[in-house]
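Could someone model EPZ with this protein?
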Amino acid sequence: MEAFVIEGGAVLSGKVQVHGAKNAALPILAASLLVRGEIELVDVPDLLDIRVMIDILTALGVEVEREGHTLYVNTDPLETNIVPEHLMSQMRSSIFLLGPLVSRTGEAVLSYPGGCSIGNRPIDMHINSLRKMGVTIHEYGGTLVAEAARLRGAHIVLDFPSVGTTENILMAAAFAEGKTIITNAAREPEIQDLARFLTAIGARIQGAGTHRIMIEGVPRPTHVRVTHRVMPDRIVAGTFVAASAMTGGDILICGAALEHMEAVIEAFQKSGTDISHDQGGLRVKGKRPIRALHKVMTSPHPGFPTDMQAQLMAHLALAEGTSVMVETVFDGRFRHVPELIKMGADIVVDYHTAVIRGVSRLNGARVKATDLRAGAALVLAGLAAHGTTTVMAPHHIDRGYEKLEESLASIGARITRERVASTLHGAT
Ligand code: EPZ
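Reply:
Sure, complex below.
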């Protein structure tokens, strides 16, 4: 079985480049289905989730070529609106296909989305929102059939600023009849990147990045030829911040959009990490002692991102003092805790709250990645631990990080991807 094997204790130093954002590229790839044309997407990372999305587009008849980090998408030959179940089940983001497919073809047949195991991940808000726009959606034993002769604009008030739901509405509304207003919209930077792409293919959108977005439905262009550069991945950048903070390193993170990372930078600075702007990038120097943080709550952007919760917790496991972290976005997003405890962390979880009592050292252990950010947190803990850490199931990490082991090794980490026995006792 594959694993990351990490010799702890290396002090990171050097320059590392941040790749394009998975959570921007995925909805933009889905949005490409809205129109006929040639679409060039620049800085698309080569990740498992992106490969699944490309497989889905290809299964629908769309042509996708990859040259390095650039994708060339030709959406003219779209042949079907039935998404293969074996692909839908691999990734939650496939729910983004609902809006574009119904908009382009009048129908979509999807199965319930899969994705990483971070608690209950319903799609009720997606379904209710599209129903308000005139889509009839029926569910037959796990298969969703959505139909709309014509999508119409609506005023949609979201109970929660759901990222995916906001994105699905944006895509469905672009070429719908009339105006759509989203109240309590998600404000994540990835929403703004999707809006930039939709504008490039002809949509008329105001307010992306704020709680209130207005989309003026316009006639669908007959053919487009656009190029779009995907924004940098703020969570990958934040993970590198944590790597330097935890190892007492001194690294320069290039390519990150600093304005997307204010809450993450603030949290690490409060815990004693020296972070400054340097050469257009982020200079991160880890300092000791790491200071505990009295209370960190994850919340929708611009609050502290849930996708950085596990990584910050690994950092605070080595703090002087006790920290409290509250996960308000997802239930079940503490699956990294038992694995960190195996490495000597002192953490107690009560429902959505984790109490982290800092310890002086973590010890290498054999641990298991359960989802992409939990897995990243275990890699970080391994970098700082004494001895050898084996992180099993690195494919979870590969969903969100392109060659993470190579990026970390390039700044001094002792990490390799190896084949190991599936159990401690050597069974293969
Ligand atoms: C997006 O997921 C991201 N994924 C997630 O990143 C990220 O954690 C999340 O936004 C929050 O920022 C992509 O962009 C591909 P939500 P999404 O809809 O859209 C509930 C990663 O690590 N909800 O904002 O699924 C939901 O259960 C991934 O890269 C409903 O109840 O997130 C959750 O509790 C993990 N009904 C909350 O809203 C719905 O119909 C936030 O979900 C939809 C969501």
